[in-house]
Amino acid sequence: MSTITFDTLKFAERLEKAGLTREQASAFAEAQKEVFAEALESQLATKADIERVERKLIEQDGKFLVLQWMLGGILALATANFAKQFF
Description:
The chain is mainly alpha-helical.
């Protein structure tokens, strides 16, 4: 699991300088810390996730190559049929 360093005191001090009360600034800082923690636990991809996706894409590459050839053949036949009708 990834970790993130978040200085809640520095964040709260910046909010206080912007005009918030100490209580409001502290509440915002704690809420921001919780949001970061939740995002890291549930939404961000890890290096292992990215490697797994890369492996799957590499495995599928051969299948896409066959699909490209099939599509090219179909387009060639359609073009030939179209040309035959008008020329």
